[in-house]
Amino acid sequence: MQELEPLRNTFIQEIIDADRAAGRYGGRVHTRFPPEPNGYLHIGHARAICVDFGLAMLNGGLCNLRFDDTNPTKEDEEYVQSIIEDVKWLGFDWGDRLYYASDYFEQLYEYAVQLIKKGKAYVCDLSPEEIREYRGTLTEPGKESPYRNRSVEENLDLFRRMRAGEFPEGSRTLRAKIDMASPNLNMRDPVIYRIQKVRHHRTGDEWCIYPMYDFAHPLSDAIEGITHSLCTLEFEDHRPLYDWFLEALEIKDPPKQIEFARLELTHVITSKRRLRRLVDEGHVRGWDDPRMPTLAGLRRRGYTPKAIRTFVAEAGVSKTNSKIEYARLEHYVRQDLNATAPRVMAVLHPLRVVITNYPEGQVETFEVENNPEDPSAGTRPVPFSREIYIERDDFMEDPPKKFFRLAPGREVRLKGAYYITCQEVIKDPETGEIVELRCTYDPESRGGWTTDGRKVRGTLHWVSAAHAVKAEVRLYDHLFLTEDPEEGGDFMANLNPNSLVVLPECLIEPSVANASAGDRFQFLRHGYFCVDPDSTPEKLVFNRTVTLKDTWAKIQSKES
Ligand code: ATP
Ligand code: MG
Known about the structure:
This protein is of the alpha/beta class and 560 residues long.
């Protein structure tokens, strides 16, 4: 994966280099990607995935996929499966190292017992509200729990009975005994186990106490022998707590946590909780709606794994949060598709054209190049006949000066076919709407050029009426109208009511007839499109991945 090379220039690589030079971890590099299975992965996660897997690859190391599934109320097997699929699709391989924090529940319980035995954890009978009250604030120290000084024996007994299900939910917790006056709130005797009489998607009814994320996470890393525990900045304040657990439990060669900034894009929300709301309230068709910034949505939209990897690696990794222009992501998918997507002609708003001097029943076939960027992609046959369709926008009855397409009396080139001249405009007598054009063609212009050097200013795409394939085309715009979806305080108020436009009656040249879901094309002059799984044998459905206009490339070239 050549495109990941820029990750070598990150501050994380510097830390890895220094650790290796000092002989830490015996020179090993072992990372993990640790999603919580409570939603689908989004474009932000792509940064974590590329950094975790990418840095392991670039350093000859290993990366695990581990589900941090410690919160049974929000988690679901559907999410586990989608995450597995998405990480694979992005191109990464965890070998046989697919793990679940829930696999470690017994060992984590043992760790908790050890903490109790060391006098570093206690069972607390305060209610959740009281715990919050006792916790203090950023400016005021907390208050010690009256249960803080229970004996080791009593704590061991109560914790065992918590596990046995003897106490109701919310009645007791196990807390680490650290420092209620710490300026870091995470260190004020955090809860490490709570009672939850809830079925877990993997362990079933085996447990009724569950470890908190902050306890399970660093210890799961330790159990897996992780060397560099990479995560986002919001966990910086949790690091002292993680280090406290690792030290209290005398873990040898403990993992080193390194934090980096989250990836955020303009017009995009990257919070599973908010994305779930969009799905649950029906603002999108599902987690994989092509407007969603989820990896499943981007895949359905037509994004390639390589484009996403390139985007992430080129954006780099830093210690400060910032927003990236959405146009930049689009730039990389265009770059990739420009090199690989076969070109076809598709008419999105069809206008019928009858070529009056072309023999009825005659069909000619033109060979048209598949990709001007890649001659090895070859050509394809495109049939031509007396009745064709062109784009409605490509004709104007009364054109302004700079309009170089078709107009009454004007000659244009049909891409790869002939020159035609518009002779007559047919309108609906009732509505006045233009329903058909009558044109003539010049038989001397076969293939789209003439020997007399006569020039035309416009080249139009077209499809033969008798041969065209019917299709539905879905055009997309940002889900949110504002660059910052949170602007004004309520992201729901910024939803774009026109983020999806469906064109049910498009016509496409027959070379796409056998396309299947996931196939990608460039529709000449319209952009890049991908076949949607909603397609049926009767009707293909296409999603527009991105238009052809590259605003990001323009910004870049101005800057350089
Ligand atoms: P969200 O806030 O979207 O719900 P999360 O942080 O709760 O995301 P996790 O499943 O816990 O999601 O994330 C797995 C890993 O991905 C973590 O290491 C987290 O730091 C990282 N991650 C999550 N969001 C981003 C982002 N926007 N940019 C980079 N990394 C991210
Ligand atoms: Mg999280």
